[in-house]
UniProtKB/TrEMBL annotation:
Residues 152-264 form the GFO/IDH/MocA-like oxidoreductase domain. Residues 23-138 form the Gfo/Idh/MocA-like oxidoreductase N-terminal domain. Belongs to the Gfo/Idh/MocA family. This is Predicted dehydrogenase. Pfam families: GFO_IDH_MocA, GFO_IDH_MocA_C3. It comes from Microlunatus sagamiharensis.
Amino acid sequence: MSPTAATSLPASRVPDPREAPALRWGVVGTGWIAERFVAALQRLTVQEVVAVGSRSEASAREFAGRFGLTHAHGSYESLVADPDVDVVYVATPHNRHRPHALLALEAGKHVLVEKPIALNAAEAREIADAAAARGLFCAEALWSLFTPKFDVVRQVLDSGLLGDISSVVADNGEWFAPDHRIQRHDLAGGPLLDLGTYPLALTHWVLGSSTDVLARGTDAPSGVNGQVGALLGFEGGARAVVHTSILANTPVALTIAGSEGSLEVPGVFYRPGPFSVVLTDGTRLDYDETAIAYDALAHQAAEVARRVLAGDTETPVRPLADSIATMALIDAVRAQIGQVWDEER
Ligand SMILES: NC(=O)c1ccc[n+]([C@@H]2O[C@H](COP(=O)([O-])OP(=O)(O)OC[C@H]3O[C@@H](n4cnc5c(N)ncnc54)[C@H](OP(=O)(O)O)[C@@H]3O)[C@@H](O)[C@H]2O)c1
């Protein structure tokens, strides 16, 4: 697509999630995202969620009852050993992703791990190595990249329509109550691993690995990091400005700007919704879709099913190398603000 020829945006190449063949899923954890993931699969796919595992028997039974799941396990060990489960979805707090992903892989299950894939790049590599050693599928559930909207963004970027990309500006700030897990240092709280994963992963997705990182942070009253601003540099002179916060609601917008035009995704940029491309000659191209929010979690599950049944161990939508690179970028930001997790001490 050349700038002069552009009259519309490309169509999404993402298949209807209902067309993906069914896998039998087991869910680790019964929290906020686990609920939305199971609801999305049941509404928009033919995937079979057959089992849930919880630290508590009662929680597992309640969750299984609510969603009509066949098996309720009172431990994660029991869930991963379930012979009726093909693939495990890890939906526990960040600092439990590594142990729970390894638990599933060691039990011979394919695994989809919530974002961020781990606490740091070393842990992410350990998970990737464990999956490779066993020939099992593994991916990070960075759900946005699996959606039709981001497939269209990818095509716009690959087409060169925006010219030479010189800057990415991405923000993700959301106020959280003092009792939310994000306020707890022992659960690797603060915005970076949670909300910050989106703008930082997107920056890498657009510009590749940064060559220098300057970051500054402010603590939240709870004692965890409350917000971070980062200025990233890239080979050739491109820059990214990233901000993430749990202290306040911010626009949650994304701009990718180049010599021929800019792509602007209004908030909440990482969920389904509109975006526009405005070229330097004044041409405006709009993308729109129903903002189905968390039902779009169905797309990542459908991609996992397609890949597993094709015998693949990764997805090109979110290769493990990209997950590791995002963690390395977060490590570099953390080094600048002096943030160390308990597990790293
Ligand atoms: N894709 C997205 O849009 C999205 C949105 C929100 C969160 N997430 C990611 O999903 C993960 C979970 O977030 P969430 O908001 O769902 O958290 P949550 O509501 O607190 O649920 C986490 C679940 O993990 C289990 N768990 C295991 N060890 C735990 C511990 N030490 N403390 C607390 N819970 C523990 C619990 O289930 P049991 O009690 O049943 O064992 C709990 O219900 C995070 O890594 C987050 O980044 C992704």
